[in-house]
Amino acid sequence: MKNSGNPGSIAPKIIPRAAHNVSRNEFSKSALKVLYRLNKAGYQAFLVGGCVRDAMLVLHPKDFDVATNATPEEVRALFGNCRLIGRRFRLAHVRFGREIIEVATFRAAANHVDDDVEHDREGRIIRDNVYGTIDEDVWRRDFTCNALYYNIADFSIWDYVGGVEDVERRQLVLIGDPEQRLREDPVRMLRAVRFAAKLDFSIDAPVVEAMHHHASLLSNVPAARLFDEFLKLFQSGHAERTFDLLREHGLFAEMFPATEQELLADDDFMKFVRAALQNTDRRVAAGKSVTPMFLLGVFFWLPVRKLAAIRRSEEKMSETQSLSLASYDIVAAQQRLLSIPRRFTVPMREMLALQPRFLHTAGKRAMKLLEHRRFRAAYDFMVLLAEVGQVDADIAKFWTDVQTQSTSERGTSFKMDAQPGKKRRARSRRRRKRPQES
User: What average pLDDT is seen over the chain?
Assistant: First the structure.
């Protein structure tokens, strides 16, 4: 019965504190403050979603979502550090320094013509501000493992849809009819992949089948929202597994069609992309920073190179210029699917356009490359190409070594005084000026 999707038709299974492993020590002090204040004011207050799931899996949750029967306005009246956001569904954000606790009012199904809800032609929910009870709210959640409610009143877990069992089985099961739920919000397909990669869960067979039917609906999702999902998919430490699952279920081609086309045709490009994904995961695991600009540059590298070659065949220009122009065109085409902010597209274009300059290791222009504001990103990109055999290893070693040298040592490395072309031209000029013998 757990997927019947009939609001209020099933009472929750209430698991007392003694029968589950979720401890308040796993939750942030800020989240507990919100829960206790709501409870003290007479409202129901639950932690819900991924934080409860991750606490059960001993994954030490970092994001905390609160569900309550208080309206957003009532939440704001309780917390001076609160602001209301959202159009599709109104939410309260309670801020504690840099931490934000999201508080959502229980939702209900839209059953009346005057309910504040709107769908598009494909069935995707555009706006949905219909409040209800916890018995109704559970049926609006996506996966059973994300529909577990931790009750601050007695520290019990309320489970309406068999979520505890699915967490134990490590399986992603959609609540309700998968076909309808994916039409309502196609981003749920990306969430399924993200959770499967992060949690090492399998995706329920009916969900997989519905994903294959509705992959094309991703084109109906606002491009800005898809970019936000891209960040979650590829910057959480499971980029390579996520990439494989996206391709397995036909979703990567919907997000990056030009990249997918090249991946199918070029094994070397696949090696490069996979190396970049592995590198991203290593950096996240080591607590190092990652930027979407770098991985986007990797995804676009071969499409950009091919288009740059066409540009050079049509018009005389340098390889650097052609790469910059091609990057602009490829990104412009991509923006219809993922709305990539300019703060990422500009440095990405510069990073790609710098690649030919690494092949030149002599002269002042080569030395000035070290001072370029995108040198470090471009260098990392070039080293990655060298790792998969697409740039000479000696080139990568040269640029690695030269960064640790003193100014005088760099002068020798770049052979600043050995410029044969200029010396020959100087000798030729001197010969022309010398008077001829009689």
Answer: 90
- Cα dist. 204→170, 175, 196 in Å? 10, 11, 10
Helix (H) or strand (E) holding 228: helix 223-234
Q: Is the dihedral of CA 207, 208, 209, 210 positive or negative?
A: positive
Please check whether residue 170 lies inside any domain of the structure.
yes
Contacts 24+ apart (CB under 8 A), 38-43: 38/66, 38/68, 38/70, 38/75, 38/78, 38/103, 38/152, 39/152, 39/153, 41/70, 41/78, 43/68, 43/69, 43/70, 43/74
Catalytic machinery residues? 63, 65, 142
User: Are 7 and 139 within one domain?
Assistant: yes
Residue that has been written with the tokens 């067979």 in this structure: 205
Residue 216 lies in a domain: no
Order of strands, sheet of 156-159, starting from the edge strand that comes earlier in the sequence: 13-15, 156-159, 148-151, 45-48, 65-68, 99-105, 91-96, 82-85
Instruction: Quote the number of domains for the chain.
Output: 2
CA atoms of 262 and 299, how far apart (whole Å): 10
Asked if the structure places residue 432 within a domain, the reply is no
Average pLDDT for residues 267-294, to the nearest whole number? 97
Check if the beta carbon of residue 136 is closer than 8 Å to that of residue 161. no
Q: What is the largest CA-CA distance in the chain?
A: 116
Residue recorded with tokens 């800020």: 30
For residue 185, being part of any structural domain is answered with no
396's tokens: 């990568």
Amino acid at position 151, single letter: N
CA distance 381 to 137: 47
CA distance 372 to 376: 8
Instruction: Let me know whether 3 and 149 are in one domain.
Output: yes
3-state secondary structure of 171: strand
Query: In which domain, by residue range, is 402 found?
Result: 278-418
The CA distance from 158 to 165, in Å, is 13
Percent of the chain topping pLDDT 90:
82
Q: How many residues comprise the chain?
A: 438
Q: Are residues 1 and 132 in the same domain?
A: yes
- 21 and 159 assigned to the same domain: yes
pLDDT of residue 10: 81
